[in-house]
Amino acid sequence: MPQHIGISRQQWRWLALVALSILLSTVFGAIGLPAARLLGPMIAAIFLSVRGASPPMPRIAFVAAQGVIGTLIARGVPVSIMSTLSGHAAALVAGVLVVTVLANGLGWMLSRWKVFPGDTAIWGSAPGGASAMMMMAEAHGADVRLVAFMQYLRVVCVSLTASLVAHVWIRHGSGAAAESVANATHAAHAAPSIFLPPANWSHALLTLAVAAGGAFIGRWLRVPAGALLVPMFAGIALQDFAGLPMELPPLVLAVAYFFVGGVVGSRFNREVLVVTMRSAPKVLASIAALMALCGLVAAALVQWAHVDPLTAYLATSPGGADTIAIIAASTPVDVPFVIAMQVLRLLFVMATGPAIARALSGALSRRPHP
User: Fold this and answer.
1) Among 5, 33, 38, which residue's Cα sits nearest to residue 256?
2) Residue 168 to residue 186: CA distance in whole angstroms
3) pTM
4) Could you report the per-residue pLDDT of 73-109, keeping only the tens digit for each?
5) CB atoms within 10 A of CB 50
6) What confidence tens digit (pLDDT) does each residue in 253-267 have?
7) Alpha helices of the chain — where are they, by DSSP H?
8) In terms of Cα–Cα distance, which of 324, 335, 334 is closest to 127?
9) 329: pLDDT confidence band, cut at 50, 70 and 90?
10) CA angle 234, 238, 242 (to 5 degrees)
11) Which residues does 68 contact at the CB level (< 8 Å), separation at least 6?
């Protein structure tokens, strides 16, 4: 390393991580890959970590980033969700329960086939928000590297498939509707400018205070995944009951994604990378099976709850909630129903995930060996 210009080895590593993260995030965003601003730093950190050149990631930054993700989840819980829940309670509860059971069943099978350890396979298959599942998994002792691999591979598959299904479905309608879907797909994959200022500075500052304060209170209280959960519930309470909306500047969200992706990616090594590559075909098969089974759940909702087919399909899609919500907003579907089922499933998985992971992994460990 060139020391004569006064830059240390660690500083060179940080510069390499930042530069490579920006490059990969830009490329991923340009080709329409979901979660580009998180995947870019994660892949960059994996590359550097495997080469032994990953910088040490500060724990305090990771805790604060969890708080930001918590307020991001809170922002996605609309006030209108209560009226939607009351009007479609049976269909929403049935859809959430069935999709969650199917996802956990496939995770259990991956564990039984010894693709991944029990709790890791369960968290990796959980049909909740990918970043939230990573943090919950880490808090409960699962291998967050493998969970991230499973979750984000499914996000990519589900998001791209949903975009294609919506486009093909609407193409049989008006040309304007087809163009609307194309625009929605582009919007779902293209993040706003990183330097875009907040619409309301007071709301942005309140959100940052909730994120940082809640994260450190959660850690101080030693609540499992408290750095994520305390800001999330505080944000929901302030937004939906006190009328104070959560607002996150894109730059803050990008920095949070950088540290989350960097922390996860820096934990990879050559052995873990080999495991993920060898398991990719089986994980892809499980993702395809889950998507097909969720399609059957959507068909059942059409027949039983009289939900239109595209609404049912988007509502039961097992991942990529951000993309699904944006696509739904620009298509002729029941948007509150789609968002309500996605949010309700996320909250349900976060509430029940630890107990389910413990129970299923415990059952696997008690299974007699042949």
Assistant:
1) 38
2) 15
3) 0.81
4) 888 777 767 777 777 888 999 999 999 999 999 999 9
5) 16
6) 999 999 998 998 898
7) 9-30, 36-50, 59-75, 81-87, 89-112, 118-125, 130-139, 144-171, 175-189, 201-220, 226-240, 250-266, 270-305, 309-316, 321-329, 335-366
8) 324
9) low
10) 150
11) 211, 231, 248, 252, 253, 256
More confident residue, 276 or 82: 276
Residue with tokens 């969700």: 81
Amino acid 365 reads S
**Measured between alpha carbons, how far is residue 187 from residues 23, 219, 322 in Å?**
20, 35, 11
Per-residue buried b or exposed e for 278-314, using 16+ beta carbons within 10 Å of the residue's own CB = ebeeebeebbeebbebbbebbebbbeebebeebbbbb
CA distance 171 to 167: 6
Residues 6+ apart with CB under 8 A from 6: none
**One-letter amino acid for residue 284 of the chain:** L
- Note the pLDDT tens digit of each residue in 212-234: 999 999 999 887 778 888 998 99
d(CA 150, CA 113) in angstroms, rounded, equals 16
For the beta carbon of residue 78, count every other beta carbon within 10 angstroms: 17
